[in-house]
Design a protein that fits this description.
Helix 9 runs parallel beside helix 10 (284-296). The protein folds into two domains: 8-178, Class I glutamine amidotransferase (GATase) domain (Rossmann fold, 3-Layer(aba) Sandwich), CATH 3.40.50; 196-308, Rossmann fold. The protein has helices spanning 10-23, 52-58, 77-88, 99-105, 121-127, 154-166, 168-178, 196-207, 225-235, 284-296, 298-308; strands spanning 8-9, 36-41, 45-48, 65-68, 92-95, 113-114, 132-133, 139-142, 145-148, 213-218, 241-246, 251-252, 258-259, 271-272. It is globular and about 50 Å long. Helix content is 37%, strand content 16%. A five-stranded mixed sheet has the order 1-2-3-13-12. A four-stranded mixed sheet has the order 4-5-9-8, sandwiched between helices. Strands 11-10-14 form a three-stranded parallel sheet, covered by helices on one side. Strand 1 (8-9), helix 1 and strand 2 (36-41) form a beta-alpha-beta unit.
Length: 316
């Protein structure tokens, strides 16, 4: 798993790491240009002990898979050079959502078929000679480069990687354990475009800043990364709220990653959201969307679904 310290998409990063760790079919590492804090966007932060240089010393032959999330900057030179070097060593490069912009800047989308977040597809096709967007597919593989649709595709692509490594039975076992019904490639892209209603909701929610609020999610050691990521990401995409994880100290999540929560005392009187321990983690998104609709209305729920490219009918 690759991250940019200054900003890495929450679900793109946390979900594949947690799902692959849960599967226990490979050594899973998380690295950034620098060790230490990685700010996740739109919510949360983690602390990584390893950087790309230390990974290269420990694994001179490179990785088998490099997962590239969406990042605050899609042309960081350290990130770009490292992706190129790993691809040259034979790694399969997996771009989650707008991570395709990063992988494209490494020169790895030229003359390839690709998926990508619905908002990026025209940009990617224009930037990369011979690149062809493949519609209605959650993920597309072409000569060692895999790309996915939006944020929600992080769940099915993670299970698909497990299947590629360890077979269908192991993938099915992990999918069942997290509540993912399927990880097939079929994806109806028809609903995903910015229309007048969604644009109006975005503008109104952004401009009525006096109604914005903080969503506090209490966390403790063992919190499920997948469940937390999906909840925090969705609440923070309403343009009405920002989610924070709250605890009095650093927390070790189920995957082993160290979460850096916010202090309860530093955030006034937030709206508290408690994750249910008996919820299968991948089902948290649907549950959170219901809560968002109840608090902010159905139009805001649909805006979140649009930005995360999630369709309940297709699910995962």
């Amino acid at each position: 798993m690759l991250a940019l310290n200054e900003g890495t998409e929450t679900t793109d990063f946390l979900v594949p790491y947690a799902v692959l760790r849960r599967a226990n079919v490979a050594t899973v590492e998380a690295v950034a240009p620098k060790p230490g804090r990685v700010n996740l966007m739109p919510a949360l932060a983690v602390n990584l002990p390893n950087d790309v240089a230390s990974f290269d010393r420990r694994y001179p032959n490179g990785a088998d898979y490099v997962i590239v999330p969406a990042m605050h900057s899609d042309n960081d030179p350290v990130i770009i050079d490292w992706i190129r070097s790993q691809a040259a060593k034979g790694a399969v490069i997996v771009a989650i959502c707008s991570g395709a912009l990063v992988v494209g800047n490494a020169g790895l989308l030229d003359h390839r078929r690709f998926a990508g977040h619905w908002y990026d597809k025209a940009t990617l096709a224009a930037r990369h000679p011979g690149a062809v967007h493949v519609p209605n597919r959650r993920y597309v593989a072409d000569h060692g480069i895999v790309s996915t649709t939006g944020v929600s595709a992080s769940v099915p692509i993670s299970v698909a990687i497990i299947e590629a490594i360890a077979g269908r039975a192991q993938a099915r076992s992990v999918a069942d354990s997290i509540g993912a019904a399927n990880w097939e490639t079929a994806h109806d892209a028809t609903p995903f475009r910015l229309e007048a209603r969604s644009l109006r909701t975005l503008v109104v929610n952004t401009l009525t800043f006096w109604r914005h609020e903080t969503i506090a999610i209490p966390v403790k050691d063992g919190i499920d990364d997948i469940q937390l990521a999906l909840a925090a990401d969705a609440w923070s995409r309403t343009y009405r709220s920002t989610a924070i994880a709250v605890a009095s100290r650093s927390v070790q999540m189920r995957s082993g990653l160290t979460l850096e929560p916010a202090s309860p005392a530093a955030n006034g009187s937030p709206y508290w959201v408690r994750l249910e321990a008996d919820t299968l983690p991948a089902r948290q998104l649907r549950s959170t969307l219901i809560d968002i609709a109840q608090r902010y209305g159905d139009a805001t729920r649909k805006l979140v679904e649009l930005t995360m490219e999630y369709d309940e009918r297709g699910g995962f």
